[in-house]
Amino acid sequence: MSVFLYLWGKFAFRRKWFVIPAWIVLLVVLAGVGAAVSKPFQDKFTAPDLPSQRATEILDRHFPGMSAAFNGAAITGTYVIGAPAGQKLTDPANAAALEGLVQRLGALPIIDKNHPVIDPIQQTKQVGAPAGIDCLNGNPASNPQFAAVCSAAPLNVLSKDDPKSVAKLDAIFAIKAFSDITADDRKAADDAAEPARAAGLEVDLTGMIAQQAQNSNSAEIVGVAVALVVMAIAFGAIVAAFVPILTAIVGVGAAASVVLIGTSHFTMPTFTPVLGSMIGLALSIDYALFVVSRYKHELTVQDSPEEAAGIATGTAGSAVVFAGLTVIIALAGLSIVGVSFLTYMGVGGAIAALFAVLVAIGLLPALMGAFGRFLFRPKLPGIAKYDPEDDNSVTLGMRIARVIGKWPWLTLGLSVVILALLALPATQMQLGVPGGDSAQPGTSVRKAYDLQTKGFGEGANGTLLVAVDLSKVPQNQRAQALDELRTKLAGYSGMDYLTAAVPSPDGQAAMFTGVPKSGPNNQETTDLVRNGRAEENDLRAKYGMEYGITGQTAISVDFDQLLLSKIAPYLAIVAGAAFLLLIAVFRSILVPLTGALGFLLSMAATFGATVAVFQQDKLGIADGGHPIISFLPIMLIGLVFGLAMDYQVFLVTRMREEYVHGQEPIPAMERGYHHGARVVTAAAIIMISVFGGFMLSPDVTSKSMGFALAAGVFFDAFLVRMVVVPSLLALMGRAAWWIPKWLSRIVPDIDVEGARLRELQQPGRHAQPVG
């Protein structure tokens, strides 16, 4: 591979005015096709054989169109209404304002006319009417039937403790997908409540209609700004700092266009372009940084810039190819989880990583040729003085490497202890899906959550829908079977109350709503869902009855369990594939093994730090603490594993190159560290800046994702790759580079260190100064 890339690098450098236009044409064509055939991004969280799917199937058979409102397929909104202090919603003026809100919502064009909005006061009256009970003004003490009828209403829309202070009404909108919601739609939905607010009612809107799509612009701007500063310091020159930005623009643009083309055939989640741009931007800059740094070094030892470009592409370019492959494997491997949105997000990220590699080895040599002698000008005074590519320069990296080489046990022990202490909180990790309680204080979504909790209890924010199939139950036993199920579910300590059963139009099924005592992300609610499902075997054996429990809370519990069960096989497959790949890169058994084991340390520390900061709110930035979003751990593993192997390749290939060229193990480690430390440091800082930019978002979920990714890169790059791995190499000595002879014969020699390139070069070269 090194020979092929060497020849390509020289060709691209020499034929720059052919290669650069070719890339521009490719980018324009991809962008044009993408714009012409693209379809909207949509979030469909599907996975095979989830327990909640059983309830959805029952609803679809016996309650047509009902499941969409409970499994997130329909665009919904919940208006939570509070009466003024000291007043009741049933007071004439407040009741009139509430009725006006219902009428205005019914008149909105975006409301689904097949599911009209119902006045909660009138709905509550209808509940008691058949039994002759006044559920609004009746006295529970004087009428024993009051509690049985009114508290078990099919839909509790007036607050339970004080049935006249808080109400809620659910609206289903005639909008096909979340990506189709416009700013005008959100404004219309919210403006409908303005007259009610003017009349003194508190009206807060939550649900999908109130959610805003995430925007990564601030993170990208921060990442690019920091990248320019870091690369200017790394290269000691201004012009060279802009070249990786150019490759990043092309790589991200091409990858985004391919993803847009993919939307015409697949349902891509809305977060896919955010993840793709984040990965593409960071990787394109990192890979270009690595190749340009090597090019700068080769200019000092080769007889022409063209030769230097060929050598840099053949050596650093080979490392980039295999570093990129580890990222692609890690991201594409998310498909084994079996969750559709993770699969497509992983594929989108893998496409971005692929183009980051392609522009680094395909476009960058041509750009180096185009800028010519101006690439490393003007030089920055002071910074360029200490060049890590100069073997005679004593940099900070060299000093650190000498400390590691002298006291490897000490540096290894300290790093492991630090990582272990950081990992301790990970044992208390709690997964969940962000709800209204994680929204920024003062927003409509957060106020709706708090008001609904006040009126109906915390569990009302995560109700459970129980769908019961009675088709196999004898007609004379159906009422008894349904009553026994309700009694069993109501008997659990975690259940607050159950509504009355609603029969299906065909009489073959029923459904009712359960309200937990605890919130959607509490362990007590998770236990309630599991215990409720555990009753089915006995009831099926006794009556032939089947049922399922669904709703956003139940679906979240299922996703949490699914994702947790997939972490181990995902790690095994991805780490195993990367391990085999790195054996070919390093021609060693122990180096890839230590790289993979070191990743486990950095992941444990990252999970621990994320739990401490966002679940336990140790720094006071998480508004009291929230569960870790359920898909974050497995997404974090995929992203950081690929990046960790990048840093392993960037740093350790230089160490192996020194060893292959005759250095003893510890001097080889020190010289390789000297050459690679600044590049890995710069690459890590750029990554941390891009990911850390997401902490600027007011949303706790975005903050936690940005923090976790930035922390993962920090721990892995600066503690594992730059301390733990060099310490182990120093301790293992020559054994680190040992490979069995039988394995050496079957593993392809990809020659990342460029040993074969020396055979292609002519003797009598003369070094040329940089710039």
Automatic annotation (TrEMBL):
Presence of the UniProt keyword Transmembrane helix in the record: yes
Annotated Pfam families: MMPL (PF03176)
Superkingdom of source: Bacteria
Domain Membrane transport protein MMPL residue range list: 46-379, 495-740
Membrane topology: Multi-pass membrane protein
Swiss-Prot/TrEMBL keywords: Cell membrane, Membrane, Transmembrane, Transmembrane helix
Subcellular location: Cell membrane
Chain segments annotated as transmembrane: 221-242, 274-292, 319-344, 350-376, 407-426, 567-586, 593-614, 626-647, 679-696, 708-731
GO cellular component: plasma membrane
Classification via PANTHER family: MEMBRANE PROTEIN MJ1562-RELATED, MEMBRANE PROTEIN YDFJ
Protein name (record): MMPL family transporter
